[in-house]
């Protein structure tokens, strides 16, 4: 035997525990490793009960041991399933079956909020979570294009005698968007009451099924539509997207402040800095800080929140969005890793939030005259 048990543990650190956002060692999923001559037996306990997750973890363990430890050894993997992850506690107008609702917002438009939402959703799905996106961007719903389903239309199906809207699914992500209800050639801006009605239907009259996460892609800004969203559902936490540019950061700050208002109180999980720097394909080690450096890092420090990730400005991110195949789907690419890291950081903030704070309540919005609208 030319390897140590420690080599096996080290190799297993390279595998993400399905549905947990941590590696198999960090999450204590590996409960035992035994070496008998040329045979290695790994006992692993995972939280995701699906057959696919079990098979995936088994195959990944075998592969990493053969690649990194000893290619000739026989590997046996015993996979056990523990009870499912604790759902986030919520009350109020819950969406049945939906455990965590995450709002993705940006103060300024065009900073890549939808791109970040799409890629975080794909990363979550690849980690084994069940994920949905509600595209609530009233000014320009772009998710149907980003998920290559712009020509699809949600069907109405009958669930327990009620007619429900069936989300469109691609890449393991369920999607409903205001964009499914407008002609892409017409510039429609959803206004006030109509937008609220459509959003309410997409939230409560849809067959989302069991979801670990529902990401809500909010329109840019901090206006009425945001208030009606936070009023309608108990949002577990908010993620703010910004570029490092001063004017984007100032708007991001307003976004954080909006969620933290006393009458809203949605915890901010952190800030994702998008378009952090540009690296040309021919000079991958060069980083050009086009919009400034460390802007979101400093803002996160100032606001006592977390910098969740720094996503570079890369042509392939734009191209992948345009062809409807989010870049996080590109196996083993640097961008896939960047989004996976950002997602893991968001998850660890979410776990902390769910441990430390009570459930988010439905917000009572008080009108100028002091009357509650709920
Ligand atoms: N990191 C990046 N590198 C390259 N292009 C990017 C990056 N992030 C976003 N883009 C591109 O920038 C454009 C705007 O991105 P996106 O639509 O995600 O922004 P947004 O903030 O959601 O916009 P809106 O304000 O319209 O909702 C898109 O063409 C997208 O492909």
TrEMBL record:
> Entry's InterPro entries?
FSCA_dom_sf, MIP18-like, Mrp-like_CS, Mrp/NBP35_ATP-bd, NUBPL-like, P-loop_NTPase, YlxH/NBP35
For this entry, the protein name equals Iron-sulfur cluster carrier protein
The UniProt GO MF terms for this protein read:
ATP binding
Function according to Swiss-Prot or TrEMBL: Binds and transfers iron-sulfur (Fe-S) clusters to target apoproteins. Can hydrolyze ATP.
- Can you tell me which family this protein belongs to? Belongs to the Mrp/NBP35 ATP-binding proteins family. In the N-terminal section; belongs to the MIP18 family.
Q: Is rRNA-binding one of the keywords?
A: no
Organism from which the protein derives: Lutimonas vermicola
Q: Which residues bind ATP?
A: 107-114
How does this chain assemble? Homodimer.
Output the PROSITE patterns linked to this UniProt entry: MRP (PS01215)
Q: Which Gene3D superfamilies match?
A: Fe-S cluster assembly (FSCA), P-loop containing nucleotide triphosphate hydrolases
Domain MIP18 family-like span(s) in chain numbering: 5-79
PANTHER family from the UniProt entry: IRON-SULFUR PROTEIN NUBPL
Origin organism lineage: Bacteria, Pseudomonadati, Bacteroidota, Flavobacteriia, Flavobacteriales
> What are the alphabetically sorted keywords of the record?
ATP-binding, Hydrolase, Iron, Iron-sulfur, Metal-binding, Nucleotide-binding
